[in-house]
Amino acid sequence: MAVTMKRSIAEVSISIPDTGTILPQIPTHRLYKRIRRNACNPNGTLTSILSYVNLLEEASSNEALQILLKITDSMHFDENEFPEAITKLAEHFQREPESAVRVKILSLFADLATETGMDGQQLIDEVIKLLKTEKSAKVISQGLNVLEKIGKSFTPSVSYINKMVFFAKVKLFSASHNVQRHAILLLGVFVLVSDAEKESLELIGKYTDSPDARVRAQAFRSMLTLGLRGVHLPPSLYPRACVSLTDDYECVRKEALNMVYELGVRHPEEMIKVQDSEQEVRLIDDAFGKVCSAICDLSMNIRTQAAELLGGMTMVSDEFLHQTLDKKLMSNMRKKRSLHERSAAHFASGEWSSGKKWADDAPKEVVSADSVSLMASGACGALVQGLEDEFLEVRTASVNSMCKLALRNPLFAVTSLDFLVDMFNDEIEEVRLRAIYSLTAISRHIILREDQLETMLSSLEDYSVEVREGLHLMLGACKVSTKACLTLVVQKVLDVLLKYPEDRLSTFGCMQRVGQKHPELCMSITPQQLQDHPFFDSAERDVEDPAYVCVLIMLFNAAQHLPAMLSLFPETTIKHYAYLRDTMPNFVPRLDMGGDAKELNLTGSTGSRQFLETLLSNIQRAYSAPQARQALLKAAQDDLDRLAEIDPAFSGTANFTSVFFGAQLQMEQLQLAATGLSIKAPIKECLLQLIKKCLMLQNLFSNLTNDDQLLVKQMCLRASALNLVLIVKDRSQSALGPCQLLLHIASDTSSFLQENTKLIADTFTTAILIKLATVGDPKPGRVYREILPIVQTAAPVVIPQINTNIKMCKARIIEPTESSYSADNVIKVTAGLIAAVPFVAELENLQQSQRQDLRLKIKYPDQNVHIIVPRKRDLKKVMTEEGESESQWRLRTKVLLSHGVWTEASTVEITICLAVKPNNELELCKPVKVHFAPKPVKRGL
Asked: Confidence band (pLDDT; 50, 70, 90) for 16?
């Protein structure tokens, strides 16, 4: 252990371009090696692999297998012992009679290469040497598998690649199918591209005729792997793949289908002959027909795969594409000859009419229709067959493929509309949603008729809120043909809103888009929807009525594109416009109704950027005066928070800068405390706020540049150093945890600087990293003494540069609202039982990796806090007319509230947060307060 602790730690270094300072790189394994040793071994020492290997000399086969399993479980050894251990393992391999033990030794070689980072070249030489004299097919196949794993663990040179490829080619002639399969796999992964195009591709192709199905499947799979690596796949492989489509084994049909698809997409214009005919068709058309035929396969997996592949064959001819929606073979899909050709053929046959039989000289086709079809009969109505399949996987894949093909072919989109509308009645919710979203995607190519609308609108009463919201999105994206259609849509949407009032926001968005897309039709129904009589004054309608608000939203958005509609609005409607414009500006556009003040529009590229540039330059000029700088930073925080509210496009940048300035203010106060001066705020509270702001900088912001990331890492390094110094000074708690945190952040920062050599660290970071690298035994007391002078004399943090691409993760709670569960509408439940509160929220800029950290935080009046992990299926991406949103998510779940008896109703706070560290949750929005009243149990008589 002592030898390990004294190992040199400054072997890797970073050179700072401007100052010439050599910045030592702190290896991550050095910071945690003591923890890892204690976890792996109770004595805290590294395990010797030689101590295990030496036991193999006198062990039986069963004992040797147990020893090898112990080596695999440990995998924490001294790297200097690896060469000798490999040699002894190879010697034991040669004298071991049991094949299972030899297989385990080879498997151990692969584990050493992938988990310990051992030199793979030595292992490749050793494995090939051992397998040359091996007779067991099981051991050889395992050896080939091990060679693949070792080769993937590092980047082998060309010579070692050639060694593995040559060895695999030799083993191709083995009688064992397992050896052949692994040899073909190894060739597909490692053979050089130039060699593959010359001979290896043809060599692998010969094994598609192997007697064993697993070898045939692997041959196709390896050829596809070569194609992904850049090898040219010639069209000559196509007949071989077509023959394998009728193979008895599913695994072969699956890979052959992939090959047919790949060749069709790669060589779409290649002309090939139709079977039993001299007619030629494009390769993509014939491949499309073959894939269509696979939808009638007996295997559900093959049918699903075929339905998925159809969506990628967008270059197919229109006649073949439209044939997939018609189960009857079209007449133009048959081979036809002209009258001149038929007469010439009849003359060449030497047959003449005898006159005894009526019309016996009429020209006849001598080839049956089945033999001259350019398209297999199974391809007719292929997509219809997929939509009617009994398995939802096939139906879903067929809907997706139909959508992809319709996006590239407007005529096909019109033809497929009725089939997609029929899928709205599917029994599975997922299929219904796929059909709705597909119809939304192709909406720009279609105009809905009244009979189609009736089927769609009947689905609006679906029990699933996702289906209803999807239909709102689809109705807003599509265009209708007549005034009657628009009236039908409006009436049905309002009827459903009365039944499901929780769909209010979704309905508002639907009517907004309907008005934008149909201004002329909206103008024709304006008097009818507003109930405006031409001679008599109508009663003023309630502006809080959701149905009336929907109508106004639709008409106001239509009037934005057709200003002539403004003359049709009665006076009360104009008054309601001013109210709605102030209360819901995201749904109601600005209209020129007179007296409407001009609105100030700030954009991230003009006013907001100029404001922020001025703000940062003022702070930069005041950097030499601490009091003026701190005053400017405090004022800048308020200005930036306001800027984030009025300019959404610039909110991420403004919030990032505001949090950064807040952390800087906290840090300057704590720095005074580190020098022995007293500060107004409690030190522990300041430390907690500083740590929280650092966590916010690390976890809530995305699209940061390398310079921004370096600033955040340097800020966290300063914060961790201050944390250690103040905790050691306080002497009220252990400093081991803060010391380990400082070392971890220092290691991460130095690694980041090593990867980005163009970045320049500030003087504080450089000094801290140099000091930590020279500490031999990083105990808290010694680290404290080394960094204390640096922390006390640290210069102010550099201010960040303007980056308009920064996005901040935040949330907006849609339901419940404080008005829906106010003091007049209290959630009442018997004490000890559970009340389920519907919860809906939208999240912006949530990264995929942060989904697992999402939490619901419930705070009761007695200060009890419950952290709830929402189900994964409750969090989904928001759908838009262009498809799934990349940055917006919707969380739809139920919050369970329960408590003991309360004397009166009190508020419970519910919010969304990210659990970035234990007991450290970052709130993404302000909590919503609901009134909750657990009542005592009623005793019966």
From this structure: very low
Structural contact between residues 654 and 802, judged by C-beta atoms closer than 8 angstroms = no
Q: Give the relative orientation of helices 651-674 and 706-730 as an angle to the nearest 10 degrees.
A: 30
Q: Tokens 């014939």 sit at which residue?
A: 286
Crossing angle of helices 137-153 and 158-171, in 10° steps, is: 160
Answer for the pair 365, 276: CB distance below 8 angstroms, yes or no.
Answer: no
Backbone angles phi, psi at 311, to 5 degrees: -65, -20
Give the Cα separation of 4 and 12 in Å (integer).
17
Buried b (16+ CB within 10 A) or exposed e, 875-889: beebbeeeeeeeeeb
Pairing of strands 835-844, 883-897: antiparallel
The model's pTM: 0.77
**Edge-to-edge strands, sheet with 875-880:** 810-815, 835-844, 883-897, 875-880
Could you report the per-residue pLDDT of 412-456, keeping only the tens digit for each? 999 999 899 999 988 999 999 999 999 999 998 989 888 888 888
Q: Where would I find the H helices in 172-299?
A: 177-190, 193-195, 201-206, 213-228, 238-244, 250-266, 283-293
Instruction: Give the separation between CA 164 and CA 170, rounded to whole angstroms.
Output: 10
Element (H, E) at 111: helix 99-115
Q: Can you tell me the distance from the alpha carbon of 220 to that of 23, in angstroms, rounded to the nearest whole number?
A: 52
Q: Whole-angstrom Cα distance, residue 910 to residue 893?
A: 13
Contacts of 771 (CB under 8 A, 6+ apart): 786, 787, 790
Rounded to an integer, what distance in angstroms lies between the CA atom of residue 544 and that of residue 504? 12
Sign of CA dihedral 180, 184, 190, 193: positive
**Which secondary structure element, helix H or strand E, spans residue 859, and what is its range?**
strand 854-859
Task: Look at phi and psi of residue 677 and say left if phi exceeds 0, alpha if psi is from -120 to 50, else beta.
Answer: beta
CA 903 from centroid of its chain's CA atoms = 48
For residue 687, give the amino acid letter. L
pLDDT digits (tens, 9 = 90+) for 651-707: 888 899 999 989 888 888 888 888 877 777 788 888 888 889 999 999 999 889 999
* Mean pLDDT value across residues 588-592: 88
- What whole-number distance in Å separates Cα of residue 108 and Cα of residue 92? 13
**CA separation for the pair 313, 409 (Å, rounded):** 12
**In 243-358, at which residue ranges do the beta strands (DSSP E only) sit?**
271-273, 280-282
